[in-house]
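Narrative of accomplishments. A recurring question from our advisory board has been how the design workflow behaves on a single, concrete structure rather than in aggregate. To address it, we present the structure tokens for one chain from the evaluation set, followed by the sequence designed for it. No filtering or post-editing was applied between the two.
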């Protein structure tokens, strides 16, 4: 049984209370956040794409529409990012069991066609992805009618504390919550999820601790597909804003490299695994230049071979710019990380992922077979998607076209057995 406490979200730690394996479990205490208790608000008339009733609730001055059937008494604020605000609540499943969920209210979903397309992708992927370590949508709704369609809510299973908060708590309190076995188990689950994601021909593009959640048992879930795209998509103008910079690969920040490939996600895995080991972000550059310096100080400046590839895929001018930066030799990883006493396997794993040339970086298939993860790896239980996901979102569409498409997407949302039932009269 987990020991859940409910206190302020900034203060509360997630603390593993027991050693992880042999059964691949690591107890983590998980916190709640602020609880908001209100007078009972009225149920609306039936409205929205699926004709449901809602109650309006304020959380941190943000108005949330809570569908009939959900618990609206106690809403906890989980956080807000670029694309929305998230609260936690529950609903009763058909079997009477309480399901804890995260409800994300998207911020200005129809601000522009690009934003609308991101939302479309996210809702599609949240229905297509079916994997233990990947979040899936239980419900999607809007309380608006088509004429004033502006608010979209996505409901996912509550997946636990964000890894960002666990790491922040470690730093703030100077405690070590994540021990070597936790680091390995978290990394394994991340790679297991990525194997599925890449096999579907999807790149996540925004892997970072804030997009990973951990349960009390140290089960990891990849959240948030807002920036993901398929490799087949014609939209190949890949801008550098796509990922939080600290976890972004050098080929994404500094030079275009062939087409943007899923090895960029592997770079993020390397940064996350190193941060799990040390407790500190690996390349926390305040700007793109400082970021580049930090990367090359550890991983070395581009080799002649890589420079040739950069020139081939970009221009001679780009090569010159890169050569004009201060040149660094690759450091000895064993020496660099020695105070954290990593295993030889972990050092080898990091060495093979934190490689500037994406063509030489470990692929997800190679990573899952690496000796570092052998303790957890069960090849028969590491599913692939079995097909490429085609999002059919490469066509340029206007804002109002996206509005119609997303309205239909919500109307036709594929409910799961664990989804809340829409009350019928
Ligand atoms: N299903 C979920 N289970 C648990 N926590 C969640 C879930 N979905 C979102 N969260 C948490 O809610 C918070 C806000 O999420 P959101 O995706 O809006 O922002 P973010 O990922 O922090 O930032 P950004 O979107 O700018 O990258 C995060 O701390 C995230 O971990």
């Amino acid at each position: 049984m987990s020991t859940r406490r409910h206190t302020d979200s900034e203060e509360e730690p997630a603390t593993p209370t027991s050693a992880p394996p042999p059964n691949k479990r690591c107890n983590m205490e998980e916190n709640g956040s602020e609880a908001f208790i209100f007078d009972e608000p009225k149920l609306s008339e039936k409205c929205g794409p699926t004709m449901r009733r809602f109650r309006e609730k304020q959380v941190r001055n943000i108005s949330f529409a809570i569908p009939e059937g959900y618990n609206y008494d106690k809403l906890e604020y989980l956080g807000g990012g670029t694309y929305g605000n998230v609260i936690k609540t529950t609903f009763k499943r058909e079997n009477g069991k309480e399901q804890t969920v995260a409800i994300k209210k998207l911020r200005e979903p129809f601000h522009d066609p690009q934003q609308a397309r991101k939302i479309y992708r996210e809702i599609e992927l949240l229905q297509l992805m079916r994997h233990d370590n990947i979040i899936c949508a239980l419900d999607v709704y809007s309380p608006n009618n088509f004429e004033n369609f502006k608010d979209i809510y996505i409901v996912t299973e509550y997946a636990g504390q964000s890894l960002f908060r666990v790491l922040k708590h470690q730093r703030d309190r100077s405690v070590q919550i994540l021990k070597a076995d936790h680091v390995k188990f978290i990394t394994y689950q991340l790679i297991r999820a990525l194997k599925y994601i890449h096999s579907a021909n999807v790149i996540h593009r925004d892997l970072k601790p804030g997009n990973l959640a951990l349960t009390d048992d140290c089960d990891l879930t990849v959240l948030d597909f807002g920036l993901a795209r398929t490799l087949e998509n014609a939209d190949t103008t890949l801008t550098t804003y796509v990922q939080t910079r600290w976890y972004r690969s050098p080929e994404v920040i500094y030079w275009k490299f062939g087409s943007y490939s899923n090895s960029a996600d592997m770079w993020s895995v390397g940064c996350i695994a190193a941060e799990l080991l040390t407790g500190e972000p690996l390349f926390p550059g305040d700007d793109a230049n400082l970021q580049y310096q930090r990367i090359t100080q550890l991983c070395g400046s581009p080799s002649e071979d890589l420079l040739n590839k950069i020139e081939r895929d970009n221009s001679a001018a780009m090569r010159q710019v890169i050569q004009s930066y201060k040149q660094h030799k690759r450091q000895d990883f064993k020496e660099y990380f020695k105070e954290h006493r990593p295993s030889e396997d972990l050092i080898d794993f990091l060495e093979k992922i934190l490689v500037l040339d994406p063509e030489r970086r470990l692929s997800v298939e190679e990573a899952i077979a690496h000796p570092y993860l052998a303790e957890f790896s069960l090849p028969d239980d590491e599913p692939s998607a079995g097909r490429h996901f085609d999002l059919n979102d490469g066509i340029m569409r206007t804002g109002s076209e996206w509005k119609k498409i997303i309205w239909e997407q919500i109307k036709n949302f594929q409910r799961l057995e664990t989804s809340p039932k829409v009350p019928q009269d």
